[in-house]
Batch of 2 targets.
Target 1
Amino acid sequence: MSDSSARDPSRDNAMSAAMASGRVEPDDNAWTRRLVLFLRIMAVISIAQGLYHWAQVTGFIGGEEEAFENQSMPWQTATVYFAVIELVAAVGLWLATPWGAVVWLTTVVSMAVIELMFPGIYGGSLTVVALEALMLATYLVLAWMAARERPP
């Protein structure tokens, strides 16, 4: 039941003019799409990190010297924490939910704090801290730009 007389002629003229000139109208949700793509990439990374931590807990990787039971209590606690929270964050990130971003931000900040404040647990790698800071900054920029394209 499409009535061609009910169509907006000004919109049709604008579309035909844009097509004739070879110009494409800008996408209004470009930053939102970029944010969702970034969240999905971070979800895949979080799954890999979570599975890595679970492999450490279960003994799937590492030798006898690196067995979970032979590690210090702070290392065991941090590893179990990241094994659980990374996978929870991955689900939320893949679905692009607000709680997923919050859980992921918690994991990013937690890893940076552990590396900086407790270097005895995972070794205090400044490279890990820099990567976490880069991911956090990228998320904040994308979220800000996505929010700007949808004013309140």
Note: The mean pLDDT is 86.
Target 2
Amino acid sequence: MPEKPRGGVTVHDVEQFVFLHKLLAKGHASEVLLTAAILDQELRGAILQKMRPDLSEKKQERLFEGYGPLAEFAAKIEVAYALGQINEDIYAKLRIIKDIRNKFAHLPRECTFWTGDISELVAKFQCKEKATHPQIFGMMAEECFDHLARKATEATQ
């Protein structure tokens, strides 16, 4: 994976985002899994912004890869909140996205946004707009992504 400048969006990030949209036609599960993966990387960047600037790649790997304490999406959400990189609203949305991701990844059958457990999780977003479940998920993920992008921009200014 290419090195990511602290707080910046790389060409790789843009390519991932384009790749996500190409995969949307392949089903809800791919949308959710790829969205969560991109948000996971953005959270990593937000956390790194608060860490010492001379933290080596090797030490970053120990934190964020394999069995490192920040390897899991859930851990990154908690630490980003504790460091003030996300607010309460984004924290809640990310937790729901994580739960939806886990359902898609671990249910033993094919499912959609309208599958019982997943539909209930989407309802937790309490979206006031009239939209389909996939649209609601996309809007909430976009809010999270936009928040993290703003944080990245603020860090570079």
Note: Helices lie at 11-23, 28-49, 57-64, 73-82, 88-106, 116-123, 133-156.
